[in-house]
Specification:
There is one protein chain. It contains four helices and 15 strands. With 264 residues, the chain is of the alpha+beta class. The chain has one domain: outer membrane lipoprotein receptor (LolB), chain A (Clam). The strands form two sheets. Strands 1, 2, 3, 4, 5, 6, 7, 8, 9, 10, 11, 12 and 13 form a 13-stranded mixed β-sheet that branches. α1 crosses α2 and α3 packs across α4. This is GLPGLI family protein. It comes from Xylanibacter ruminicola. Pfam families: Porph_ging.
């Protein structure tokens, strides 16, 4: 099946860095879920960071819906192609729409989009190591409620890295937060890969990052309340057709917080 979907060109791709990601789904969980994330770097400095598996899912979803496919047909193709599940809903476009700014698409019940400045305030630390035969230096930062340690390779002079992490004099090949919720390791480096960096052409609800994350947390904790807040009456019924209250969901593990004490 030849799958295609609508997308907007952003840059020609020069490099792809592949990361193995181990991440908690919930704050109190002891289990780490595996994912594969890609960082694509363009020749004009635009980069795109996303989950390979989530991207494959949306590719199939959009392509089949464009030709009248329903939920069952989408799930069938997802299974046939061996698409693994992913909890990573970000698409992060650095140096877009301008240098030192990033655009974030976050997929939930709705597609939220926001823009913000790039970068963190890093402090260099002792503890050099070698990753994929690249000598790496250590740095630490506090960013949006989490403390991160990163290892960056100065012989790869690209000031970028996984997720929103960037701003060091070399590519970040390893990063983890100090609560043990997210562990990210580069496992592959591909040069001159060709292709394009694109952005999915879809209806997006644009807002400030603080507003987006407030809605994301409401959706994750109480989707019925979110639907009602948007003017949609949402009622869940039990097997006997009686209205019921959805159980409270455990607190998700988020990469970041935009509450007043966590925004720096």
């Amino acid at each position: 099946m030849n799958l295609c979907y609508s997308k907007n060109f952003m840059d020609k791709m020069m490099f792809r860095f592949v990361y193995d990601v181990q991440a908690k789904a919930f704050e109190k969980s002891t289990r780490l879920n595996s994912d594969e994330h890609w960082l694509d770097i363009g020749e004009n400095g635009v980069s795109k960071y996303y989950s390979r598996w989530k991207n494959d899912y949306w590719h199939i979803n959009d392509s089949l819906k464009a030709i009248g496919g329903d939920f069952n047909s989408i799930q069938r193709v997802v299974r046939e192609k061996g698409i693994e599940s992913s909890q990573f809903n970000y698409y992060i476009y650095k140096n877009y729409p301008s240098q030192r700014h990033q655009t974030v698409d976050y997929y939930s019940i709705e597609l939220f989009q926001y823009q913000e400045p790039m970068g963190q305030d890093w402090e260099l630390a002792e503890g050099d190591t070698t990753i994929l035969n690249h000598p790496c230096h250590k740095a630490v930062c506090n960013y949006h409620g989490r403390t991160w340690t990163a290892y960056y390779a100065t012989d790869i002079p690209i000031s970028d890295g996984p997720w929103k992490l960037c701003g060091l004099p070399g590519l970040i090949l390893r990063a983890y937060d100090h609560d043990g919720a997210f562990i990210i390791n580069c496992i592959g480096i591909h040069q001159e890969v060709g292709g394009e960096i694109t952005m999915r052409d879809a209806k997006k609800r644009k807002m400030k990052p603080e507003q987006a994350h407030k809605l994301i947390e409401l959706i994750d904790s109480d989707p019925d309340a979110y639907m009602e807040s948007q003017g949609h009456k949402s009622t869940t019924y039990d097997e006997k057709g009686r209205p019921m209250k959805m159980p409270q969901m455990p607190k998700r593990a988020y990469y970041e917080s935009y509450s007043s004490g966590d925004k720096k």
